[in-house]
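Example 4.3 (complexes with small molecules)
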Amino acid sequence: MKKYKIAVIVGSLRKESLNLKTAKALISLAPESLSFEIINIGDLPFFNQDLEATPPNEWVTLRNQISAVDGLLFVTPEYNRSVPAVLKNALDVGSRPYGKNTWNGKPGAIVSVAIGNISGFGANHHLRQSLVFLNVPAMAQPEAYIGNAAELFDDHGKLTNDSTKDFLKSYMEAFEKWVQTIAQ
Ligand code: FNR
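Answer. The structure with FNR bound is encoded below.
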């Protein structure tokens, strides 16, 4: 069975992040052909083209990590109806220098997670807009909007809601097929 490496990019830096908990649940429910690495995007200096002459080590690390994977799983909260700045910064850092877009062509999937019931719809779709430009084919269906997320986990961060578990499992099965179809 061919194995595929997937970078998991979480848009929240909080230790108790519901998005991080969801990302871990997604990883645990995924088919065996997918392996995962959660990428640290919290230490990336803000993108500034002037720094490209001697790119910060954190930028180089991110670019190498993304270059090495076959697919991308984004799990993000919504901040003010868009994606958190830390996630946008990671997209920008990975997209440069000009002509060396590390995201290019990698199959992606987007899960938005929120405490409210609009479920991060705005962030989910703003992220899709950037991914179009970055040439990341983002899985269209199923869509994943996880609302009321504070009610889904126990005190140890374990997903306890059975219907969400079933949904996330089927989502990862669809993502496996998407990766198999698109990854080179
Ligand atoms: C939020 N939150 C939020 N929620 C939402 O549904 N739509 C929004 O536009 C916003 N905006 C927003 C801005 C900022 C600056 C913060 C800190 C929060 C609430 C957000 O969904 C909630 O804090 C989640 O729990 C964040 O995800 P993590 O950190 O738990 O993964």
